Amino acid sequence: MNKTTTDRAWNFDGSTENDGILRPLCLQVESHFSLPPKRLWRYFATSDDSHMQTWMGLGEHYRGFHIPFSGRSVLPHYLLHGFFHPLQSGMLYEDSIAFDNLIYIRQSACSDLPVGFVTAYAHELQHFVQYGRTPKLWDVNRNLYHSIGVFEPNMIPSEIPSERDADITAKRIAEQVCGVEATNQFAEKQIQSMENCGASVQKARWVFFRNVPSATHYDLVRETLPFVDKYQGRIDFGVDTKQPEWWTGNLKL
Ligand SMILES: [Zn+2]
Which of 34, 44, 54, 196 is deepest in the core (most CB within 10 A)? Predict the structure, then answer.
C-alpha cells in the first residue's frame, strides 16, 4: 500500500481532534484482531447524514456499518467516491480502486467515549474479518439479515449469527480496552436509554450484549447452518448453499 492510500485509509471528516482521540483507540482495538489482507477505509463522521437512515435503511439507532466495495452503490456520493483514487488519464479501472472495504462510524458513536466508540468500531471490524475470512458465509448472513423479517416478524436482526458474533467480539474487546466494569455500565446505559425511547428491538440487543459471557466461543459456520437448512429455497442466499462446504472460497463478483 503506498503512502497516499495509507493516509486516506483514515478519514476523520476534517476533525484533527477526532484523529488525535479516535485513531489511538482504533489501533488499540485493531491490535486484538488478526485482520485480513484487505485494504480497509475507515470513516469517522462528524455530523449525521440522513441518507443512512432513508436510503440505506439503517434505522434510527445504528452506530456504524461495514460495507465491501461490491456494495458501494447504496452509499452517498462522498463515500462512494472515497473508494477510488483520483482518476488519472490512462489509468486502468482496477488501478483506480483504492479500498476493498469501508467501516463507517456514526458521529454519535464517535463521541460516545470510550466504550461506545470502541464497541462500535470493534463490532464493525469483526464484520470486516468475517468478510475477509469467509466471504460466502458473510454474504449468507447478510441476506438472512435483510430477508428473515418476512418469515420471522418477531425476530430481532441482532439474532442473526454474524451480528451475534460481532457483538460478542465487541464486548470482549471493549472489556480488554476499557475494562469489564466500564463495559457493563455502558451496556446498562444502552438498555435503559432504549427502554426510555421504546426501542424494544434495540433493547433486546443490548440485553444480549450485557448477558453474554465475553469468553463465549462463537462458531459462525455452526450457528449459521440451522438458518440455512430452515430457509433453503425460501431466502435467496446469493450463494449455492446446497454445495458441500459452501462457506469456503470466494464470492463471484
Ligand atoms: Zn453488525
Answer: 44
